[in-house]
Amino acid sequence: RTILETLYSPLANSTTSILAEDICEHSYERVKKWLDNDQLVVHYQPQIHLQKLTLEGVECLVRLIDDDGILIYPNDFINTVETHGLNQVLLEKVVDRFCADYQQNPKCFADLSISINVSALDLDRLSFPDDLWGKIKTTNIQPQNIIVEITESRAIEQMRVGLDILARLRLKGFQLSIDDFGTGRAVLGNIRKLPYNELKIDRSFVDQLTSNPRTLSLTHDLIQMAHHLGLRIVAEGIEDIQTAEVLRQMHCEIGQGYLYAKPMPLAQLAHWIAQHHADKDKPN
Ligand code: C2E
Ligand code: MG
Ligand code: MG
Ligand code: MG
């Protein structure tokens, strides 16, 4: 283990336990019913090129809809999904919903990368790359523009078919991203051997960039090391311009966060994109 890797775990663990406190977990029966009834919506959060300020892609973030029409956020059901094996159903529904949104407004997604979150549990299913490919084929989107985000909650090397699935996804043309880097078991030493294209720095690091010098230098080193591995860097949870500027200076390629836009439904995304382009084309 490098010094950097050793430094990561305690820092990240303290943040995760604070966040864990306000989680309200919905029961298996409820989550299953909502999924079976297609009570879900995908929100899209823009990803911005920090140097050029162009829109590069969107991340798909699922919300369930309860019987009163109230949105339920992933923190309140992902654990139930994963402990009761609902991850495959969730993934299928999310990809179906995205494909339906795409058919409704293909122009909205033209030239963008589309990031999809999958559970590490999905990497235990050999049919996953083919299933995903089959669904994406119904759109005009090339697999190269689909980024599969994986949070390494379990070490992929220890999984039955994890590595094989990653390789198959890459062979189909999909890109792979390691999500929430810094919070889990993932260390750069392991990632080096895996076919990832992108690394997402967790919000708990981004949050502290301008206030905590130790986080700042850690993030700086992380970006350099990840670049040596040929990975593109995305910073998540950017909320202020100072943080964006610090990341830009550290050569982080992509930024995502409330500073630019919150995750939003398709109709709102279309407006946001039109506005974003209008602002960009405005003479200064
Ligand atoms: P994630 O993939 O790391 O997604 C980023 C989360 O941070 C999202 O929360 C997003 O709304 C939030 N976020 C983005 N920018 C900011 C910011 O500037 N400030 C703050 N405070 N938050 C920001 P969300 O949508 O609640 O999702 C939480 C997690 O649930 C996701 O973390 C992802 O791991 C998981 N998730 C979301 N959609 C899916 C899905 O379709 N399938 C699976 N398996 N997991 C999903
Ligand atoms: Mg993600
Ligand atoms: Mg993340
Ligand atoms: Mg996260």
Structure at a glance:
It is built from twelve helices and nine strands.
Describe, in plain words, how this protein is organized in 3D.
With 284 residues, the protein is an alpha/beta fold. Helices cover 43% and strands 19% of the residues. It has 12 helices and 9 strands. An 8-stranded mixed barrel has the order 1-2-4-5-6-7-8-9, surrounded by 6 helices. The chain is globular. The protein binds ligand C2E and magnesium ion (3 copies).
Helix and strand arrangement:
Layout: H1 3-19, H2 28-36, E1 40-49, E2 55-65, E3 71-72, H3 78-83, H4 87-104, H5 106-109, E4 113-118, H6 128-136, E5 146-151, H7 162-171, E6 175-181, H8 188-191, E7 198-201, H9 203-206, H10 213-228, E8 232-236, H11 241-249, E9 254-256, H12 266-281
Parallel strand pairs: 2-4, 4-5, 5-6, 6-7, 7-8, 8-9
Antiparallel strand pairs: 1-2, 1-9, 2-3
The structure holds ligand C2E and magnesium ion (MG) (3 copies).
